[in-house]
Amino acid sequence: MSGIGRASALIGAGTIVSRLTGFLRSVVLVSAIGATTAGGNAFAIANQLPNNIYAIISTGLLSAVVVPQIVKAAAHDDGGRAFVSKLFTLGTVVLLGTAVLATIAAPWLVALYAPGYPPQQQALATAFAYWCLPQIFFYGLFALVGESLNARRVYGPYTWAPIVNNIVSIAGFLVFIWLFGPTGSATAWTSEMIAVLAGTATLGIVVQTGILFLFWRQTGLHIRPDFGWKGVGLGQIGKLAGWTFLMVVAGQLAGLVQSQVMSEIPKSDPGVFVAQNAWLLFMLPYSIIVLSIGTPYFTQLSEHAAAGRDGEVRGDIGRSIRTLGVFVVAATAALAAAAIPASRIFTGSPDEAVAAAGVLLCYLVSLIPLAVLFVVQRSFYAYDDTRTPFFFTILQCAIVVLTAWGALWAFHEGVLPSAQLVAAVALGQSFASVVQVIVATWLLHRRLGSIHVGSWLWALGRFALAAIPAGVVGWLTFELLGGVDGWTVSDKILGAAGAAIIGIVVIAVYVGILAVFRAPELTVATGLVRRFLPGRR
């Protein structure tokens, strides 16, 4: 636990700084191009494309396969050097080819993801996309190097490097405001403005990727270009990656449907850009808590699975879920209570903040289930099983698509106002995630035998009972500070301050209730928190 605690603290601290600078990046970006403008939504679509395509070609493969395989390759006579060299060579070739093809196809990709945009807005999004799509190559290298570092227990750089990306982006966006002033229409853009804004976004990814290579020596691996892709296990990766590739494609197709639905929204109402910012807020606790604690557990779990120690794997599953649960349940209550002031950080007015808060609350329904899913899904990966996650993810994607189409139908029939369409799409996604984690847990129980579901479900239930009154106190605090007409919603910076105050109140009440009832998980959580303090290790 001491090793996991140190790694979790290192990853968590980096993630906190990364997310805070990421928030500042989004605030500056909203100040430059607006939250509900045609230009803002055009840039949102273009900058989303490299993430979507990179996810298809790389993310699922890396998270599902690379860490367990590098852990196994470490047992080879060369410590895994030949395997990693061949893996990097293959990955670089695939990523470069994908980036080139995607950039050429920019007009068709924009039309596919945003068919509801008028011609001028599609043209602007396409111009942005030509600058943004090369990010695919650098995103892929970043993940490939970062997951390799994680597999060798070098956790820090992968978490801290995005901070530099955010700093570069903030500087570039401020230069944009200084040169051109705030703008949001689809017709006022020049080629210079497009180059500065989108070029800045891509430059940040390039710098972020380059920094990781400075830490490669710590892995102890010496890689070189190697096009002999046979003989060291890449065939096994291909077999495992086949199911993962199909799973990620299915997820991206579901996201494509959501994007198409949201492109139908009038520009004055919350659209793609607002949804992305709500997702950014939603991902704050997920990134800080789930990734920082879950990533070291995944490496340990992979080692236990590779050694055939199923009993220890079952113990890892229960401990990680209970530890994650202490933090995630508190974060859900805090973010729900502070939804409106937190949303004000990324919006231009109190009314926009209220609308965006509704989207955030709909996403928050799935925060706890997704934390459980992180552990359950990676337990399958640790046993080289990517086929089973494909099937329960297909179910989730089908529900996402059906609920998005249902929301669009309700919108066209006049049942659902356009201002609530994004929230309805977000709620459909959360419902799909709840169903997914129930099915996934059942399948893992069948695979491993008893994974002590009752014990960690009971723990999550206790945490929820503590979080409900804590959340209520947090909401009352928001009302005492003036509510939707108060100072916490009047400005972006004040919104951040108000959200912090409400969050502190919620967490204090939550911890107090758990302490009164002497929840054993609180001791573990307290130990992890102490590692963040100066002078602690």
Report on this model:
This protein is 79% helix and 0% strand. The protein contains 19 helices and no strands. It is globular, with a radius of gyration of 23 Å.
Describe the SSE topology.
Blueprint lengths: L1 H32 L4 H36 L7 H24 L1 H8 L5 H14 L2 H17 L4 H25 L10 H23 L20 H29 L9 H35 L3 H28 L1 H6 L5 H15 L2 H16 L4 H26 L8 H28 L4 H28 L11 H25 L4 H10 L7
Précis, in short:
This protein has 537 residues and is mostly helical. It is built from 19 helices and no strands.
* Regions with little confidence, pLDDT below 50 for 5+ residues: none
Helix content: over 70%
Structural class: mainly alpha
| Terminal CA distance | 12 Å
Radius of gyration: 23 Å
**Shape annotation:** globular
Mean pLDDT: 80
Q: Largest sheet, if any?
A: none
Number of helices: 19
Order of helices and strands: HHHHHHHHHHHHHHHHHHH
% residues in beta strands:
under 5%
Record field, number of beta strands:
0
Q: Which terms would index this structure?
A:
19 helices, 79% helix, mainly alpha, globular, 537 residues
